[in-house]
Amino acid sequence: MKCCRPRPKNLYREPSQLHNSQKKCLYILLCIASTSLLTFFLRDTTPVLFVKPSISDMNFETDTVDSTKINDAFWRVSIRHINTLLSSVCQDENYMVLTNKNIESDNVRMKDNYIYFCHPISEIQAMVNGRVVHSDISTQTIRCKETYSSKTKTLIRHFPFSLKYTDAVDFSYKTKIIRDGIAACTILHAIDIVNSVWD
Fold this sequence. Notes:
Elements: H1 20-42, E1 48-50, H2 67-70, H3 73-92, E2 97-99, E3 103-105, E4 108-109, E5 114-121, E6 124-133, E7 140-148, E8 151-159, E9 161-167, E10 173-178, H4 181-194
Antiparallel strand pairs: 1-3, 2-5, 3-4, 5-6, 6-9, 7-8, 9-10
């Protein structure tokens, strides 16, 4: 019987197209799936712990972070995780500056040259590979009362100076002239801690 036979397919007819609402729905689902996968693969599963400052921190070495590591997506995720951890530590404790020596991961101290300011200094929240360049303009001095762990001492610091660093928030290389004496004290103190030359 004619009515029971399947209709023959027209090979020349264009396949039916998705409606706009179906396209939007498919696009949204793909975006959600992609975001979920990226979050899963780029998350930092290594437990990171805060370690209170101790004079024995001067025994731990610090390494300069090379450009390959700075451009690595996984390393950047871990640094952002550390920034978040130290932000919460700063809210609970009375610290001005924290460094890689206060970070422990898998029972090993962080070796990357890293400084986190609890209160941003010259718009710097956190930095990697911070170094200071003094010049002929570094003619002013300031007496800095510096404390680390249970030890306090007064040092004469010179400023203004040029600070070269990689921003640990947006990971761009920057240079700033530090003209404020109090900011100079904090930055120079932190860099000495990182380089284990403060003790």
